[in-house]
Amino acid sequence: MANVVEADTIFKELRSHSISEFFRKNSQMLGYSGKVRSLTTVVHEYSSNSLDACEEAGILPEITVEVKEISEGKYSVRNKDNGPGIPKNIIGKVLATVLSGTKFHRYIQQRGQQGIGGSGCTMFSLITTGKPIHIKSGTGKSAYECDLTIDIKSNRPVVTNMIDIDKDFMGLEIYGEFGDVKYEMSDHGVYEYLRRTALSNPHASIRLVDPEGKEYNFIRSVSQMPARPKPSSPHPLGVTTNDLLEYAHNSVDSKKLSSFLADTFSRMSQNKVAELREMVRDVDFDKDPHQLQWAEAEKLVKAFKETKWIAPDLDTLSAIGEEQVKATIKNILNPQFMNVVERRPRVFRGGIPFVVEAGIAYGGAAGKQVAQGYSGVVIRFANKVPLLFDGSSCAITSAVSGVDWKRYGIKEFEKEPISVLVNVSSVYVPYSGVGKQAIAQEPEMIDEIKLAVQDCARGLQRYMSGERNKNIQASKYNTIMRYVNQLSINLSEITGKKQQDIETELKALIDRRYKKLLEAEQQANSSEQEQDAEEKEIETQEDDESGDDGSEESGE
Amino acid sequence: MANVVEADTIFKELRSHSISEFFRKNSQMLGYSGKVRSLTTVVHEYSSNSLDACEEAGILPEITVEVKEISEGKYSVRNKDNGPGIPKNIIGKVLATVLSGTKFHRYIQQRGQQGIGGSGCTMFSLITTGKPIHIKSGTGKSAYECDLTIDIKSNRPVVTNMIDIDKDFMGLEIYGEFGDVKYEMSDHGVYEYLRRTALSNPHASIRLVDPEGKEYNFIRSVSQMPARPKPSSPHPLGVTTNDLLEYAHNSVDSKKLSSFLADTFSRMSQNKVAELREMVRDVDFDKDPHQLQWAEAEKLVKAFKETKWIAPDLDTLSAIGEEQVKATIKNILNPQFMNVVERRPRVFRGGIPFVVEAGIAYGGAAGKQVAQGYSGVVIRFANKVPLLFDGSSCAITSAVSGVDWKRYGIKEFEKEPISVLVNVSSVYVPYSGVGKQAIAQEPEMIDEIKLAVQDCARGLQRYMSGERNKNIQASKYNTIMRYVNQLSINLSEITGKKQQDIETELKALIDRRYKKLLEAEQQANSSEQEQDAEEKEIETQEDDESGDDGSEESGE
Fold first, then answer.
1. pTM summary value
2. Which residues of A are less than 8 Å from B432 in CB distance?
């Protein structure tokens, strides 16, 4: 053991690193991998921040994205919105400090939720071009311009060239230069990203100026703000023991555990607190919440699970809307068949509410044309934000491929002109990675997405079997008709009757018989449909049991 | 615009968060999603830290992992190694501070590279059971025990109950309790993880005690330490402008740019510095490296790319080894056919060296048995660590499915008893997520993995076509023989000769003919093989051009 290196020697290499340093080294985790993807990531971060800001301020969003080529692999992006702007004194915290922001700690549905995206862009600009980003911001009362970059070692902002400008400037404009990127018209490019964003955000007006100076206007199709999702309190069924302890130890106003519970959680009435007090008699409900211990919290959470609660508040969720999903699908795909379902909100991990919308399109421009014909396509959104990358590891993709498509008349999903659109909305979307391009494999989410897609697919089955019957019938008819001519010639020779007359009679006979055949088949189909309808009713009842708003439901 | 909310109101919600808070909320990003996966993640973090520590200290690893069920969904994990231990004064930094460690900033191939895994376990224990982890550590000079947890808000360690123990205790033992986990014998469970770890680390002795008390011993099969990968300096072709600036601004010893370059990069001889000085005449090589500007660094990096360099140092890479991969495959799969290839090191992103090993197994226990027969399987390793999750988004999986398997006699990879094993070793593995379960889609890596698999598959083609020929020949022979009996009866009737004699003669005739047929086909095959060999030679030459160690190569 002479060559053994001792611990002291090994650990003299010990260092701590800032979160910025970590993401500088692992920028692919933020979505900066591949030139096309990297540019889309920048536009994604800026435009979804703009949409969030406008929504929060109650302003109908108008966003302009300008992309210019500076030199090979180097592009500028200018993102201008009509939002509320960012106050001068905190611009550095908001756009040049990783893990700083307004969204991370709040219980409200927003596109951003991490406090990483915007600062990530500032860092990506710095590490690929060495340049700061340029900000112009006006809040109505005042306006300014400045340069902004990030000190990576300390994860602190560096603001320079700050000047006040005419306060007529309203909104936020960010100009940045980025290297190692590429503008491309593809399924993963900026154009496609903004087009899909427009489709899921019909209240937004989005304008893209591409590197060739070509303008694309995605015009606002709804001039009303969508219902603003309300900030909500966590539901008792959605908290872990650790969550409860965190809330208790950080509570500000409550002097007693009982009032802390009532103040902190939704659906926690005084009656419910009293009920819990009865259930967990060895926990002192008058104690200071800051003194709550793990064992006590664990007992409370167990009692939460054994109590009947009103389902989570649905006002916290904002979906695209059934009509809008329909318009969206028609708009992009103009399919032969289409069906859209908006499900009732559900919960995952015990009590975090989410809602799924799904649409299926068949024929028209649905699916994707490939060399051998068609391939099925999954169009994914989370909180109305298009997800263009990492599809293979996403819960939405898993759910769609978990559907037994044969039952719905689709022999192979991979070989049909079919598109499935899914949007998942939640106060907390459990992304699988920091780059937020795929939803983690939460079993309850996968199940619910699958149910939504199956709901949609029921109509598809009827459409496909109609199509198939039509085809089968047509082929039977054609087969018989093919022999009519030959048969009439033979019969004419035998009987001496005119061939032409025989052929006409035969055809009439076949047409009559075929009509009867058709009627019989249609009858058979409609009884199948009734059976379908019954099935559906049963599933709907199940829905009601577990997801009805306002009804009491058990946690276990 | 009466309802417009102003920026000051919106941004009073601004907060900064610690990296621990971020991962507490998004623990799925660390691999804590799903009960089985979460337990495997804990064992993965502890055992790979043990292997790294032993390797660094030059000790043949002996690792014991004990998993016990405490109550439903709650398990304890004890991980004991014979490594160098961790000094008392820094135990908190090492195992209870996210983004702190010895690995992140060093240019050396190790299993861990982020300074997140171990502290992540401490946090996961805290948030699922409220408990600290318990440490026993001995460095040879002294030994101690303590409890350790993490203050999530501040990302700081909390050490309690520290006591000195008998200094005979050597190595590190971590005991932790974890909730929301499950022990399961499956492809994604602890047993499978450790079995694969043993297979890729033949110098390690690994012992698992499962929750039923059953012991599994993965015995050491090589009693020599693998060549320790050397810490290396970055290669000039692997740095970006931003990297160069970071190095320059943080350089300690160098007073001049010229000496900084020579001191910092590998393959940077005095001659090379002189050559660069000639190429970039408007950059002052005598200037203080701390004063280096972006534009200057950009010019230098451009010059790096236009210079011929000796390829990156290969001592920085430690692969499993061809013989060991063969033994591994034989050990797990005992296939009918097997081929293994260890490629030469390559670079990605301009200059980060990596090396790919690949193995293909067909028949035996290769592939996976499914209801309809078989399915192909990809067995992934990065730096000898098994990757059990997120396969669909991994560069290895992409590369394998990018292979045109038909060319190699495999009609559908998804339906054959075939396993493909790939290990990627590098100083920096570009993982797609913080949980390190998939390699990002780096085009150069995908290409190289694909080449490695194709190299392997060449042998497979020959095997499969041999198998197929044998089958075709056998079926021809059987078809003919089936008629011999009937034919001999007919001929006997016509000629009056004995049926038995005729049958014997006919069979002899066919056997003679068939033998000729066989020889002819074998000849045809062997000329195919020659052609194959030629193809292979051409590709090998290409290899030599671009990857030969010691030869000069151009960066562009």
1. 0.80
2. 28-29, 33, 390, 433
